[in-house]
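Practice problem 4.
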C-alpha cells in the first residue's frame, strides 16, 4: 500500500508485476463473497488499486493506448484544484464521449482489470457494504480516478457506473456520511460523472436534491468542505447548463438561495 503511492515509476512497476493486480482483485472478491467487506486486508487491497488507478489514462502502456485511443490525448495531471468551470468546450467533450471502447474482455488480466466492469462493480459493492471509511474513500477514489480524464475510457467507466451497474444509489448514500473526506470524494466522483451529457438526466433525478441538501448555507471555513462545495457547484452547473428540466429541479430543491449566498461572498 505504501509502495503504490510512491509516484509514477512505482505505479508503472506494480501495474507490470505479473499477477499482482489479479491477486488483489481475487482477494477482494473472496472477502465480499464471505461477507467480510470490513477487514483490514480488504482495505489495503482497495487502497492499492485506488493508487494504481491514479492517472491511469495518461500512464497506460503504449500497446493499450493504441488499442483504446485513436491518438494519445493530453490530459491535465492536476485534478485537485476546486475550480468551477472547465476549459474544454462542450462540443469537444461530446465528441470524445461518442468514441467507443473496444469490446470488453470477458477474462481481463493485469492492468486490463483496472478499468474493467468487474472491478467497477466490486468498488460499488464495497461502497454499499463496507463501513470502513478508508475502504469507502478508496473505492470512491478509484472510480473518481477512472472517470477523471477526457478520453473514451473515463466516459465508458461513467456509463458503467450510472447505467449498467446502477451505482448512483450507493454513491448518494455516501453524500450523507459524517466523514468529510468520504463525502468530498463522493462529490468529486459525481462531478466527473456529470460531465457526460448522456448521463445528466439520470444523475439529476437521482442525486440533485441530495447535492443541494448538503450544500452549506454559507461559505465554509474548512478546506475540505470548501473543496466539496466547489465540486457541488461544478456538478450543478454541468447538470443545469443545457437542461431546463434539471434547472427546474434545482429551483424546486431550493438550491438558488444557497448558491446566491455562496456567490456573494468574497
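Answer key:
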Amino acid at each position: 500500500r505504501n509502495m503504490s503511492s510512491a509516484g509514477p515509476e512505482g505505479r508503472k512497476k506494480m501495474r507490470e508485476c505479473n499477477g499482482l493486480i489479479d491477486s488483489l482483485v481475487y482477494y477482494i472478491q473472496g472477502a465480499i463473497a464471505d461477507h467480510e467487506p470490513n477487514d483490514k486486508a480488504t482495505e489495503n487491497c482497495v487502497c492499492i488499486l485506488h493508487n494504481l488507478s491514479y492517472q491511469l489514462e495518461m500512464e497506460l502502456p503504449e500497446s493499450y493506448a493504441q488499442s483504446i485511443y485513436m491518438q494519445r490525448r493530453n490530459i491535465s495531471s492536476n485534478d485537485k484544484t476546486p475550480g468551477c468551470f472547465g476549459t474544454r468546450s462542450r462540443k469537444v467533450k461530446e465528441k470524445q464521449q461518442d468514441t467507443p471502447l473496444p469490446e470488453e474482455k470477458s477474462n481481463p488480466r493485469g492492468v486490463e482489470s483496472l478499468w474493467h466492469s468487474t472491478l467497477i462493480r466490486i468498488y460499488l459493492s464495497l461502497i454499499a457494504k463496507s463501513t470502513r471509511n478508508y475502504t469507502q474513500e478508496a473505492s470512491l477514489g478509484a472510480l473518481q480516478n477512472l472517470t477523471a480524464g477526457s478520453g473514451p475510457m473515463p466516459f465508458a467507466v461513467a456509463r458503467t457506473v450510472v447505467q449498467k451497474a446502477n451505482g448512483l444509489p450507493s454513491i448518494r448514500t455516501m453524500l450523507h456520511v459524517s466523514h468529510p473526506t468520504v463525502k468530498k470524494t463522493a462529490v468529486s466522483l459525481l462531478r466527473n460523472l456529470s460531465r457526460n451529457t448522456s448521463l445528466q438526466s439520470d444523475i439529476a433525478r437521482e442525486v440533485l436534491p441530495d447535492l443541494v441538501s448538503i450544500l452549506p448555507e454559507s461559505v465554509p471555513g474548512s478546506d475540505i468542505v470548501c473543496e466539496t462545495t466547489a465540486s457541488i457547484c461544478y456538478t450543478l452547473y454541468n447538470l443545469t447548463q443545457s437542461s431546463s428540466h434539471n434547472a427546474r429541479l434545482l429551483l424546486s430543491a431550493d438550491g438558488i438561495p444557497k448558491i446566491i449566498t455562496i456567490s456573494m461572498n468574497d
